[in-house]
Amino acid sequence: MKEISDIIAAYNKASGEGKRMALATVVHVEGSSYRRPGARMLVTDDGMLTGAISGGCLEGDALRKALLVINQQQNKLVTYDTSDEDDAKFGVQLGCNGIVHILFEPINADLELHPIHLLQELSSKRQEGVLVTLFSLSHPQLTVPGTCLLVLPETAVSEYVSTDRYGPELLADANHAMLTKQSFISDYLFGEHLLTAFVEFVRPPVALVIAGAGNDAFPLAAMANILGWESTIVDGRATHASLQRFPDAGRVLVAKPDEVLSQIPVDDQTVFILMTHNYNYDLALLKNLIRQEQPFYIGSLGPKKKLERMIDDLQEQGLTLNPEQMHRIFGPVGLDLGAETAEEIALSVAAEIKKVLTKTSGLSLRDKLEPIHQHRLNKTIIEL
User: pLDDT tens across 226-255, in order?
Assistant: First the structure.
């Protein structure tokens, strides 16, 4: 979501300056590639780039393609094939041994609905959504709708699907992606043309709640900002919990443990870190958190003995934690990285949060036996 937020901010600025723009989206990948489907980049007519569609090797050529699309005002699908060992002939030196399909779409700010508008609708509230992007692999020059449908929990936003006879099928698949919380690629027969849709499930950004406004929370708040996570600092001490001390935080809240959950919405992308260095505060907040179905991740800073003591104290208060509740508590918090400094501990904590939310192993990629990303056509799930 950080990339989407950056693109929206760049669009608003460029639009106010009267610039013309195009959006480049990775819609399909065969083989290996630095970025996966859903990676986006905004290009302005004066060459400003926001976002990324590769590790830097495609951007130069993509700029030229985007400027052409801006001038022609037509969608264009471009394929970069580096499966040939002699990829120098493409002039982009990808070196990834894969085929990357990128859709370029001109952005007409005068239209009520355009790709950036759908991204704005998606990010305007903290909610899940599904974006549908149509393109043609068999006829790349065919004019296709591109980013044409956004499905939110209660609404569907699209100028295209509401008028096309294949709209119901696309909408049904988008709702399926919303239900399963998975992205996939699917083929559709539109008249005589076979089109492919990238049906992309998009989660809201991670909401990191740091309970504790000590100096050791500085690097964790800063790292959350870099990652595009929405961070909240909460502490009972007004002298510590302030925006002056935590300029990287999205929100700073002075509250007692029993006041926290009434002021912070919690969903399956919300995580808590207990690091107030006040045992009673952490214990009270843990008691309130564990009674809820969410969050799925509660990190406890400090030694294992501290967490064991908190669990014993909760039991004495009549709250015995079941295995599911215990599974949600991570203490000592973080991955085993040999972290010592506050900055290293922040890295360890952020890495563990990412691992838990994406349900991955945390192994070194060198030791991973299967491909990093799985992708196939025909409604087979893409693990992004």
Answer: 999 999 999 999 999 999 999 989 999 999
